[in-house]
């Protein structure tokens, strides 16, 4: 019986700059040492400049929705304009405010008809006057650090594409368990359609996601690139999850 609930995540890539400009006007911030600054809400940080002047900016990207996607995924990489190298960024902490997906609010208000990233981006691009209202639904804000490898999981160990997964740490306290996943992975066919194909392999529970809650719940890490993004954005199904334990 398929009892486990699977979703997926990946590491997005964004163009960035080290200094702000009219085009690159949204900062990626590192974790503040001040408790007062750490407690600021998403809107206070993005729209009211609550962290400006404290030297916390890591990079600047193009808009708040790119930042929101980066924060949902928990890490990624940026490429500075004119450079070929990538800079990896990893989760460093949050403001501990409630995390809610803005797609839910946008659907409830009738702004979009589905929860796809494409629909969300299109509406936000055409309706900047709604940004403060929409982002207020998710006061949670994620801070980052620059790292030398793929985004880091628990104990600062880099995630491995198609091998790492996140589970609820309050339930699965002992991390590093070897698991076998039996599910399906979304694949884009030659005619552009999304097809679910059988997918099974070993995964290691080495991460924890802020939105991953409950038993038999796992978020699979698919790494970088278009295929990883496609799979992460379309995987939401039931399957089987087996833990491998030493028999005494």
Plain-language structure description:
It contains 7 helices and 12 strands. It has 248 residues and is of the alpha+beta class. The strands form 3 sheets. The chain has a 6-stranded mixed β-barrel with strand order 1-11-8-10-9-12. A 4-stranded mixed sheet has the order 2-5-6-7, with helices on one face. Strands 3-4 form a two-stranded antiparallel ribbon. A hairpin with a 6-residue loop joins β5 and β6 (87-94). The radius of gyration is 18 Å and the shape is globular.
Helix and strand arrangement:
Layout: E1 4-9, E2 13-16, E3 26-29, H1 35-38, H2 42-46, E4 57-61, H3 64-73, E5 75-80, E6 87-94, H4 102-108, H5 117-126, H6 131-135, E7 142-147, E8 164-166, E9 178-188, E10 194-207, E11 217-221, H7 226-234, E12 236-243
Parallel strand pairs: 1-11, 2-5, 8-10
Antiparallel strand pairs: 1-12, 3-4, 5-6, 6-7, 8-11, 9-10, 9-12
Largest sheet: 6 strands, mixed, barrel
> Count of DSSP E strands?
12
- Secondary structure class reads alpha+beta
- Please tell me how large the radius of gyration is: 18 Å
Order of strands side by side in the largest beta sheet?
A: 1-11-8-10-9-12
Question: In angstroms, what separates the terminal alpha carbons?
Answer: 27 Å
Strand residues, percent: 25-35%
Poorly predicted tracts of residues? none
Overall shape: it is globular
As a percent range, the share of helical residues equals 10-25%
Put simply, the count of helices is: 7
Q: What is the mean pLDDT?
A: 90
Task: Give the helices and strands as they follow along the chain.
Answer: EEEHHEHEEHHHEEEEEHE
């Amino acid at each position: 019986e398929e009892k486990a609930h699977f979703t997926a995540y990946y590491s997005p890539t964004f163009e960035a700059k080290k200094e702000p400009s009219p085009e690159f006007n949204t900062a990626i911030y590192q974790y503040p040492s001040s408790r007062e600054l750490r407690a600021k809400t998403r809107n206070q940080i993005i729209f009211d400049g609550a962290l400006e002047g404290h030297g916390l900016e890591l990079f600047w990207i193009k808009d708040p929705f790119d930042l929101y996607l980066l924060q949902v995924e928990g890490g990624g990489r940026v490429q500075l304009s004119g450079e070929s190298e990538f800079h990896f960024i990893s989760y460093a902490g949050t403001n501990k405010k409630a995390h809610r997906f803005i797609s839910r609010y946008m659907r409830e208000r009738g702004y979009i008809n589905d929860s796809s990233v494409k629909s969300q981006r299109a509406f936000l691009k055409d309706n900047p006057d709604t940004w403060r209202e929409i982002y207020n639904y998710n006061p949670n804000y994620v801070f980052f650090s620059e790292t030398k490898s793929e985004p880091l999981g628990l104990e600062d160990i880099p995630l491995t594409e198609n091998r790492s997964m996140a589970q609820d740490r309050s339930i699965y306290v002992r991390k590093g368990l070897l698991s076998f996943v039996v599910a399906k992975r979304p694949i884009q066919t030659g005619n552009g359609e999304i097809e679910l194909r059988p997918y099974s392999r070993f995964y290691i529970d080495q991460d924890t996601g802020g939105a991953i809650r409950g038993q038999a719940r796992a978020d699979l890490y698919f790494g970088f690139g278009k295929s990883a993004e496609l799979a992460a954005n379309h995987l939401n199904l039931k399957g089987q999850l087996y833990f491998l334990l030493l028999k005494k």
